[in-house]
Amino acid sequence: MSKIKRSDESAFTVLYDKLWESMYALAFSLLKNKEVSKDLVQEVFVDFWIRRSEIENNNIEAYLKKAIRFRVYKELRDTKFNNNIDLLDSTKVPQASGILDNLQLKETKNRIDKAIGNLPKKRQQVFTLSRYNELNNLEISQRLGISKRTVETQISLAIRSIKSEINF
Description:
Mean pLDDT: 82
Number of helices: 8
Helix content: over 70%
Oligomer: single chain
C-alpha cells in the first residue's frame, strides 16, 4: 500500500493482476452480467487509484472486496429503481392500436396524472422535473437546492405512491 500511495504504477499493476479475477467473480456471482461486472471492477480500481493517498486501510484486498460489494449492491438497487421507472414510462408513449386500446391508454394516463396531482408538492415537482422535463437527479438537486439523495428518495416515493394509487 505504501508503494501505491507513492504512485508506484508497477505495484498497482501487481495488485490489479492479483485481485481482478476474484473481484470480477464476486461481482458476477451477484449480478449475472459479464459486462456490468467488468465495468464495476474497473470503476473500483480507478476510484482506488484516484483516492490512493486518502485511503488509510492497509488490508487492500479486504478494502477492494468491500468496495466491489458496495458497487454491486448500488447497481442492483439502481437497476431495480430504473426497472420501476421503465414500467411507468411505458405508459407515457402510446403503443396501442384500435379505439379500445386508445381509450384504455387515455384512462391510464388520466389515472397517472391524477395520482401525480395527489403527491405532496415538493415530491410532485421532483417527479415532474425528472419524468417530464427529463432532468437528471443532479440537475434537479441543483435546481431545487436539495441533495441528490433526497431527489432519488422523492422519485422512489413518488413512483411507489403512483403505482399504489393506480393499482399497478
